[in-house]
Design goal:
Length: 344
């Protein structure tokens, strides 16, 4: 394999579809009706992941069958100062039909402004705006943003109100079980966000204090479902397609978000267990999409660990990926992997 850099992302997806078993075209998020009605047909969403969910990643997830994919979290202050780097996180790249944009910050006026600007720039490609009230990282919470908003519910409501006033699309919130271990506030907090105008609540069943450790509690997803009338999106420890269906059934949530379960596994959305050949082809496809979307090729290094997981000599191939620089370096490695597989 070698890259033809003139190829655009839509051509790359078409070129690899037969080898990967992923869709050659991306389907727009269902239009018309309430958000709850729109996720009925396909309730599987790709979660926001900072440093991961770039355009290429979102395209792979949607080619795998995700109804919608979220941007990385984007700073409203960054949009306020108009940085190109921040805008690059928000604007979908062809052939992405639409995108869910997640914003973080702590200033209602900046949120309102950001929603206005994002709506204007993305038009019909903006499917929804989500407000991050879940990020536990100190660099975010120390400024009162992310999960810290769960400790300032009046400010959180004001932020939802400011976004709703400027949005032409549903405004949703993503929350945690609570801030501190054993102090679950998600159900009452979710209700307050609904009253402020949130069109759906995504709940990650861990406390902010847990960061990403320990088990996610799905019971809190049920309790949030019981506390609000708007759709609830469950998140946490959905590793397989079967887990996603189990969460829907066990909690009564309207949709499920998959985060780490998507690592090297875009098929998680369509209940296919891929062959080794399909996983290698998908890695090559993903690498080509990084190139076609203008991403930094270093992103392909962490992807190698995910797509090659469980394969013979995976650790040495991962080391090999660390030495790759250009798209052709990565594709040559895939060729060698395919040849090595053919000999065994
Ligand atoms: C690398 C990484 C980055 C993440 N970034 C975000 C983010 O920007 N916004 C957000 O709301 N959640 C973020 N999350 C949380 C996920 O969306 C999800 O709620 C959480 O990982 C639980 O799901 P999981 O157990 O399926 O991974 C991130 C998670 C990971 C692993």
């Amino acid at each position: 394999m070698s890259s033809n850099s003139a190829c655009v992302a839509s051509e790359v997806l078409r070129e690899y579809a037969a080898q990967t078993g992923l869709a050659p075209e991306l389907v727009p998020f269902a239009r018309g009706g309430s958000l709850g009605e729109r996720v009925l047909a396909n309730p599987l969403l790709m979660a926001p992941m900072a440093g991961v969910s770039d355009a290429a990643y979102r395209m792979m997830a949607r080619a795998g069958g995700a109804a919608l994919a979220y941007s990385e979290m984007v700073s409203v202050a960054g949009l306020h100062y108009g940085s190109d780097k921040t805008w690059a996180l928000v604007v979908p790249k062809d052939p992405e039909p639409d995108i869910a944009v997640q914003l973080f910050g702590s200033d209602p006026a900046q949120f309102g402004e950001a929603v206005g600007a994002v709506s204007e720039r993305l038009g019909s490609r903006l499917a929804l705006v989500d407000i991050n009230m879940a990020c536990p990282m100190p660099k975010v919470t120390k400024g009162g943003a992310g999960a810290a908003l769960m400790g300032t519910p009046d400010l959180a409501s004001e932020i939802v109100g400011a976004c709703v006033a400027m949005a032409k699309v549903p405004v949703t919130v993503k929350i945690r079980r609570g801030l501190h271990m054993g102090k679950e506030v998600a159900p009452q907090f979710a209700r307050k966000m609904q009253e402020a105008g949130a069109a759906a609540v995504a709940i990650h069943g861990r406390y902010a204090a847990q960061l990403y450790r320990g088990e996610a509690d799905w019971g809190v997803v049920s309790r949030v479902v019981g506390a609000v009338e708007v759709p609830v999106i469950g998140s946490g420890d959905v590793r397989t397609h079967e887990d996603a269906l189990r969460m829907l059934g066990a909690t009564g949530c309207s949709a499920v978000m998959v985060a780490r379960g998507t690592y090297g596994m875009p098929w998680v959305f369509c209940d296919v267990v891929p062959t080794t050949q399909q996983r290698l082809a998908a890695y090559a496809c993903h690498v080509r999409l990084l190139e076609a979307t203008g991403a930094h090729m270093a992103r392909a290094r962490s992807l190698a660990g995910w797509y090659l997981r469980g394969m013979p000599h995976a650790a040495s191939w991962r080391n090999r990926a660390m030495r790759c620089v250009t798209v052709d370096d990565y594709l040559a490695m895939v060729d060698e992997l395919v040849a090595a597989g053919a000999q065994t």
